[in-house]
TrEMBL record:
Keywords: Membrane, Signal, Transmembrane, Transmembrane helix. This is Uncharacterized GPI-anchored protein At5g19230-like domain-containing protein. It comes from Trapa natans. Residues 31-158 form the Uncharacterized GPI-anchored protein At5g19230-like domain. InterPro entries: At5g19230-like (IPR045285), At5g19230_dom (IPR059083). Pfam families: At5g19230 (PF25884). The chain crosses the membrane at residues 182-200. Residues 1-27 form the signal peptide.
Length: 201
């Protein structure tokens, strides 16, 4: 009889863990698809593939958090009318959170896109067929990329291999890769599991 509550607790913990991992997995899948799509586009132009830049991804994540509650309009994303762009007065603070500053990011390019439900084909076409973004994607000076998505928003940041656009340095805790976040979650889960079994004995 004593094991029944423990089984219920363990089942509940497992269910919560699985459910909490689902949104992150969906987000990572969207970002991976966009990363692969952009590199296929560059390959079609005989350009080198972009490599993932964790520091740019950190900033993209902070920006996606800022944009996520804004609706898609002609003042947002790739279809923005010049002069109507949303300003981010706290941009220096976002840079600091990723241990970045203007001097090591000024040659990079930040490209927000707003697409309802982030339909993958539409998100990619916003980057490869819009009026402004293909020029940056076609530029050989860009060698790295950071991507983040939130709700209807995708943020792509292109980086260079120069000190002025390399997006370095960033601390490991702020620029943790998706795989390291997943590893931490698994460690936490097994720690909780071990604690329950220890309490049972």
């Amino acid at each position: 009889m004593a094991t029944l509550p423990l089984r219920l607790i363990l089942s509940s913990v497992l269910l919560v863990f699985i459910l909490s991992a689902l949104p992150a997995a969906r987000c990572d899948n969207e970002e991976d698809n966009l990363f692969q799509g952009i590199n296929k586009y560059r390959a079609s132009l005989n350009l080198t593939a972009l490599t993932k830049n964790d520091n740019a991804e950190c900033l993209a994540g902070k920006l996606a958090d800022q944009f996520q509650d804004q609706p898609c309009t002609n003042t947002t994303g790739a279809n923005t009318i010049p002069g109507t762009e949303n300003q981010l007065p706290n941009f220096p603070t976002l840079l600091e959170k990723c241990h970045l500053n203007v001097t090591n990011t000024r040659d990079g390019t930040i490209m927000p896109v707003c697409v309802p439900n982030l339909v993958p084909s539409l998100v990619l076409s916003n980057y490869t067929q819009s009026a402004i973004y293909p020029k940056s994607l076609n530029d050989t000076k860009y060698t790295g990329i950071g991507i983040s998505t939130e709700k209807d928003w995708a943020i792509v940041i292109l980086t260079t291999s120069t000190p002025e656009g390399g997006y370095a340095p960033a601390s490991s805790d702020n620029a943790a890769s998706p795989s390291s976040r997943i590893t931490f979650s698994f460690h936490l889960f097994f720690l909780l599991l071990g604690s329950f079994f220890y309490a049972l004995n």
